Amino acid sequence: MLQTHQNPVYAYSHSADQDTPAPVHHPVIVVGAGPIGMAAGLDAAAQGIPAVILDDNNTVSIGSRAVCYAKRALEILDRLGCGQRMVDKGITWNLGKVFFRDDLVYTFNLLPESDHHRPAFINLQQYYLEEYMVEQIRQTKHLELRWKSRVTAVAEKDDHVEIQVETPDGAYRLTCDYLIVADGANSGIRRMLGLESSGQVFQDRFLIADVVMETDYPPERWFWFDPPFHQGGSTLLHRQADNVWRIDFQLGWDADPEEEKKPENVIPRLKAMLGEETEFELEWTSVYTFQCRRMERFRHGRLFFVGDAAHQVSPFGARGANSGFQDTDNLLWKLKLVLDGRAPQRLLDSYDAERVPAADENLLNSTRSTDFITPKSAVSRTFRDATLLLAEEYPFARTLVNSGRLSTPAVYRDSPLNTPDEERFDSKMVPGAPSTDAPVNAGDWFLRLIANSRFNGLYFAPTDGTLSDPELTALSSLTEHADIPLNILVAGLEPTDNLPAGVRAVSDTKGVLSKRFDGRPGTFYLFRPDQHVAARWRSLDRQKIEAALKRATACS
């Protein structure tokens, strides 16, 4: 029992699907009601796909678990209706500090520029996020979450997937067009199908201790290498909601996990770090081992693996849950187009083409972090310590310090859905990149304007703030495109009532939008439903835009 939180218990409910002799069919079924599974269900509903989420439990996670949510994850959760509650409850931070023994090595800022709606990170206990998501699901039409429903068999057919579900009332069967597997690192469905997840298990253990205390420590990420209170190891300190502080201690491979979790062993470590006079209460403990692994492929016919079921990384860097949200963000709009007959099945192959390299990037960063934090030889430790000493005085050495390369959104540079640039841009918004944000209109944000689960266009108007007749005709035709209609925003356009349906003028309040997109007059950007850039040009060309739409939906 936690001191600051009481887990809700959700009631099992008998479904009408259990009373039919033949399996009831649903377009999408999600297995697993952790954050990633619930994100998949909410995204399905946002796309207009009826979905069911199944989970063998009847509560949220016990203990804080994943606590660090990156800017991109918050932007995705904004679209799913949960972002603001997270920010309101969570602890916002942009700054981090790295210490070596007694000394501060350097400070870093993960979001040094202003004019972003969301911060670099917030810290929030996972159980709060899950509760918010459950509440959002309850308010969402065509989405159902069924507790105490364990999937015990899976069979893929030519045109559907059939599953068996065990409940307190007995077993029943369901079918679906697509099954999304979000049942965690020890995925039962992955085991059931004989699919492997391979990689590296690091021979080290870390203790998580959540403590409740009132302190004037700032809301920053503090990481120590070889501190005097924990010599030879490393330690991480994070603040969470409710005055709960997450503290991680490196233990070594020989540590006994059960012994290390006992209060009589944890409390002396905490007192050595915080001081004998500091008052605190121990809330929750856990011991974990680093693992960096993934499945060879995340798509298996009509089954799609997401989150920890598909890939695992070490906790340092906050790359686990944050990458899982990007999985579902990538997948659901593609399923929608295929289910509606607007895109071919081969569009779904791009889930692997985009998310497997993203997972590899996370695994690489996670492995490098682990190697730096836990050197495997005396030579490696000497190199690491020398790097830390240099970093106190020389900025170049700070790029070599690795206390966990913190989560950044994947850029799908080599995606088959991208249309390559034809001209030069002075902007990071390359094809495949997730869109940046900017203030627009009176108190609004650009990402909110394109959070509509559709393809969107952004056109930068001529310097006189008006559109010519050919421009209006081209934009209007794109919004009425029979296969994939566009919503189009026009930046820098004088307010007018004569715009075609689907075209909207946007005020670039501070000039930030045009700066971040290098939006010279005549520039056009095409965005996918997951807000990634599909293509960009220096002029408005209807034929090129339509060709890019076909490419972004695997129709050409």
Topology, pairings included?
Elements: E1 24-31, H1 35-47, E2 51-54, E3 68-70, H2 71-79, H3 83-89, E4 91-93, E5 95-100, E6 103-109, E7 121-123, H4 126-138, E8 143-146, E9 150-156, E10 161-167, E11 170-181, H5 188-192, E12 197-212, E13 221-225, E14 234-239, E15 244-250, H6 257-260, H7 263-274, E16 281-295, E17 299-300, E18 303-305, E19 311-312, H8 320-339, H9 349-373, H10 378-391, H11 395-398, E20 439-440, E21 444-445, H12 446-449, E22 456-460, H13 469-479, E23 487-491, E24 503-506, H14 512-516, E25 524-527, E26 533-537, H15 542-552
Parallel strand pairs: 1-2, 1-11, 2-8, 5-13, 11-18, 22-23, 23-24
Antiparallel strand pairs: 3-7, 4-7, 5-6, 9-10, 10-11, 12-15, 12-16, 13-14, 14-15, 16-19, 17-18, 20-21, 22-25, 25-26
Helix pairs in contact: 1-4, 1-8, 2-3, 2-8, 8-9
